[in-house]
Amino acid sequence: MKKIGSALAAAAIASVVATSGAHAAVINFAVSVLDGAGLGFTGATLDKSSAFNFDGSSLLVSSLGPGDASGLSPFPTPPDTVALAPTLIDYGSGTGSGPLAADVTKTWTGATGDKFTELLTDIGSINRATMNAITVTLTGTVNDSDGLFVDVPISLIFSANQVGGRGTSISAGFTNTTVTSGVAEPSTWVMLGLGFVGLGFAAVRRAKSQPVSLA
Asked: Which residues contact 151 (CB under 8 A, 6 or more apart)?
């Protein structure tokens, strides 16, 4: 009986691990930055800029990656949009990591009404190696109203280029990716409970079967 109880517990816990992995969720989508009267940067050239302004721009979802759980729709269907606040991202004049001059909040609503809030607080890296271009990696956390993501680490990689130098049109966009968020379904929690019950049952049986020694 001890062996049966232990086997049931092991099987239940193994099922928990498998089920959690099967229902992992990620955020993985790309955005194109279009138009915007205030679209531009602060600095002599884009590669030497210290801030980028998205004011008035349309942030259109352009593609979804494998397993994306953002609930967004890209082109060719009417593409969804995301919102940034503030619209100015101040990443400073350096190239290393560190805190953002001001936190940036990115929000969107998925197809089922799930509301996402992404808080970007830090600079992961800045690439200024290409003339009239820049790539900035921002990091933070993401949450959603359905509880699929709870303070899950996330990164936003923003890239912009301006062929021909300042005064010409700017092409910009960014990608969003998360560390996998493993979310167990209700059946998983039931199996987890059965696993612990099985372990407890085996422990009790083992204790009862052992003789008591007298000093």
From this structure: 141, 142, 143
CB neighbours of 55 closer than 8 A, spacing ≥ 6?
36, 37, 38, 39, 87, 88
Query: Of 5, 44, 17, which Cα lies nearest the Cα of 184?
Result: 17
The residue assigned the tokens 């619209």 is 87
CB 110 within 8 A of CB 139: no
Return d(Cα 63, Cα 82) in angstroms, integer.
Answer: 13
Cβ pair 34, 174 in contact under 8 A: no
pTM of the model: 0.73
| Tokens 């049109």 found at | 169
199-214 residue pLDDT tens: 344 443 444 455 544 3
| 76 upstream amide cis, omega within 30 of 0 | yes
pLDDT in tens, 154-190: 999 999 998 776 667 889 999 999 987 665 444 433 4
Residues facing 176 on adjacent strands:
29, 156
Q: Is residue 174 left, alpha or beta, with left meaning phi > 0 and alpha meaning psi from -120 to 50?
A: beta
Residue 143, token pair as written in the block: 């949450």
3-state secondary structure at position 60: strand
Tokens found for residue 185 = 């379904």
